[in-house]
């Protein structure tokens, strides 16, 4: 074979370099892209009626005795039968009746392998210490716009996030203490952020409705806000200069208020109940509330991510209604210090009231340039964690992550059809 000429070698070399650069670019790009997961199917086996709850439990500002990441490493793996029992659930309806639904799980072995535990030696105490890294989103221009508008307030004192036009994801302990439903769940309500209007006699003043015909109960909040910010019509226009400063003060000092909506039904996994998933209750600290009426506010979809710490930025975000800042939506972002298959420990400053907030990240849709925020977990809150299973307690910020199996269950609760939930 004769010598290969330089004119042949150069194109081949250039092609190899281009392919290598493209491959490296695709690898980096994949880190910023939502992974696609085939999820198992959760299907109803049987639904039976139960007696009405007592609604006698009281909210607990801090949970204790949680078997944390280190403790759970000592526990045996759950069997399929165990998982089906943990994912079976109770439903409480607005009239106080209750049912129990047993489920079957299909296709669990077909799910892409879920990563093992990822350890880190760093620990940070919860609450606010040192510099407070939280941001109060009190301006109506931001708090009533996506993604902050997806955050809702639960009447039991927690937060939640809209995951469909009429479904709210929150923490299970916000409605149930593991033994009984909280007092108040029988009349549970969800507060949706809206612009606070200053309404004097006759509906005048900044944010007023004039003759009261501009905004109805089911009016889209963002459409209303846009109209009011454009000045509206009628009485507010041309009523003298004296109104201007008062209007400005009202707009600047007025904090977002809530439009309260009743809850049609509440669904809680049996894995959260005492004595059902010993040592694993924290993994199932989530619940879904179906609203009586859709608030016509953009919701946030669920997402599944194998490792938060391996993301380029490694940060999570969430917003809630912390008790120490009443009337304000509080936003924060931070890094995850440790994660397991079902739990996240993170650094975020938080106070009671933010429990139940949806934890989200932002990645690109596969094959597209569009960036999308999705919920990857539920903020459970400040918990006293049993570290090694020997009763020694440490306090951490704990969040429940969305796994393929939990995605399948929550999606089934939202859509009522498991065929809608085969890919996350």
Automatic annotation (TrEMBL):
Q: What Gene Ontology cellular component terms go with this record?
A: extracellular region
Domain named Peptidase S1: which ranges? 144-182
Record field: compositional bias (Basic residues): 196-216, 238-248
Q: What Pfam family is a match, any one?
A: Trypsin
Question: What gene name is listed for this protein?
Answer: prss35
The name this protein goes by in its record: Inactive serine protease 35
Positions of region (Disordered):
193-261
PROSITE patterns, alphabetized: TRYPSIN_HIS
PANTHER family (UniProt xref) = INACTIVE SERINE PROTEASE 35, SERINE PROTEASE
Gene3D superfamilies, per database record: Trypsin-like serine proteases
Q: What GO molecular function terms would the record report?
A: serine-type endopeptidase activity
Signal peptide limits: 1-16
Q: Which GO terms describe its biological process?
A: proteolysis
Q: Which domain of life is it from?
A: Eukaryota
Tell me which family the UniProt entry assigns to this protein. Answer: Belongs to the peptidase S1 family.
Any idea which UniProt keywords this protein has? Answer: Glycoprotein, Secreted, Serine protease homolog, Signal
Q: What is its main location?
A: secreted
Cellular compartments annotated: Secreted
């Amino acid at each position: 074979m004769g010598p290969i000429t330089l004119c042949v070698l150069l194109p081949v070399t250039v092609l190899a370099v281009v392919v290598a650069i493209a491959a490296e670019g695709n690898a980096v790009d994949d880190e910023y892209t939502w992974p696609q997961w085939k999820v198992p199917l959760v299907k109803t086996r049987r639904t039976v009626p139960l007696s009405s709850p007592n609604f006698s439990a009281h909210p607990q500002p801090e949970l204790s005795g949680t078997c944390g990441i280190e403790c759970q490493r000592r526990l045996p793996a759950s069997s399929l039968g165990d998982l089906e029992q943990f994912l079976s659930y109770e439903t409480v309806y607005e009239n106080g009746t209750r049912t129990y639904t047993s489920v079957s799980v299909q296709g669990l072995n077909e799910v892409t392998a879920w990563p093992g535990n990822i350890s880190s030696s760093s620990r940070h105490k919860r609450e606010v210490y040192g510099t407070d890294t939280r941001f109060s989103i009190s301006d109506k221009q931001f708090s009533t716009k996506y993604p902050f508008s997806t955050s809702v307030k639960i009447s039991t004192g927690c937060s939640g996030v809209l995951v469909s036009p009429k479904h709210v994801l929150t923490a299970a302990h916000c409605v149930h203490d593991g033994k009984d439903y909280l007092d108040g769940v029988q009349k549970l309500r969800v507060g949706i952020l809206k612009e606070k209007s200053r309404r004097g006699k006759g509906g005048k003043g900044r944010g007023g409705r004039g003759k009261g015909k501009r905004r109805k109960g089911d009016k889209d909040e963002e459409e209303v806000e846009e109209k009011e910010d454009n000045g509206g019509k009628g009485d507010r226009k041309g009523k003298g200069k004296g109104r201007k400063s008062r209007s400005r003060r009202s707009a600047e000092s007025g904090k977002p208020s809530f439009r309260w909506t009743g809850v049609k039904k509440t669904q809680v996994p049996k894995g959260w109940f005492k004595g059902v998933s010993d040592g694993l209750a924290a993994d199932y600290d989530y619940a879904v509330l179906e609203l009586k009426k859709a608030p016509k506010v953009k919701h946030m979809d669920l997402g599944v991510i194998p490792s938060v710490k391996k993301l380029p930025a490694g940060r999570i975000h969430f917003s809630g209604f912390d008790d120490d800042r009443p009337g304000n939506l509080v936003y924060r972002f931070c890094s995850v210090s440790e994660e397991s298959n079902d739990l996240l420990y993170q650094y975020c400053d938080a106070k009671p009231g933010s429990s139940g907030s949806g934890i989200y990240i932002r990645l690109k849709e596969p094959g597209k340039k569009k960036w999308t925020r999705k919920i990857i977990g539920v903020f459970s809150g400040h918990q006293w964690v049993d570290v090694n299973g020997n009763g020694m307690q440490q306090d951490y910020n704990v969040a429940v992550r969305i796994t393929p199996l939990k995605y399948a269950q929550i999606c089934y609760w939202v859509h009522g059809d498991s065929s809608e939930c085969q890919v996350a």
